[in-house]
Design a protein that fits this description.
It contains no helices and eleven strands. By secondary structure, the protein is mainly beta. The strands form two sheets. Strands 2, 4, 5, 6, 9, 10 and 11 form a seven-stranded mixed sheet that branches. A hairpin with a 2-residue loop joins β7 (about 70-75) and β8 (about 75-80).
């Protein structure tokens, strides 16, 4: 089993930046993909970015490309967000799982483990 704990959420004004962290513990040898998801007011959980631990390959959703950077240091996954907009508000979740193919997909079903989420509020 893998435990994920997010931190770094908060309130920020539009145009600002924020970095989220997610620390993994437990049987992390069984995972090779970690990702960030966002659940906004529409209650749809959207995959934003993912990182494959083997090669470091990263994938971003088209809607956020250029404004987000995903990175990892050992067992901690980061999401740096810049030029934040009110529509970026929501609960941000860290997720982890094992995927074949050398790249990480952004669909929820590909991830077995989830954190509790951290809230981000962007005010205009």
């Amino acid at each position: 089993h893998v435990q994920l704990v997010e931190s770094g959420g908060g309130s920020v004004q539009a145009g600002g930046s924020l970095t989220l962290s997610c620390t993994a513990s437990g049987n992390t040898a069984g995972i090779n993909c970690m990702a960030w998801f966002r659940q906004g007011l529409q209650n749809e959980r959207e995959g934003l970015a993912a990182r494959y631990s083997g090669s470091g390959d990263v994938r971003y959703a088209d809607s956020v490309r250029g404004r987000l950077t995903i990175s990892q240091d050992k067992k901690t996954l980061y999401l740096h967000q810049s030029d934040l907009r009110p529509e970026d508000s929501g609960t941000y979740y860290c997720a982890a799982g094992f995927q074949l193919g050398g790249r990480c997909r952004l669909g929820q079903t590909f991830y077995k483990y989830w954190g509790q989420g951290t809230q981000v509020t962007v005010s205009s």
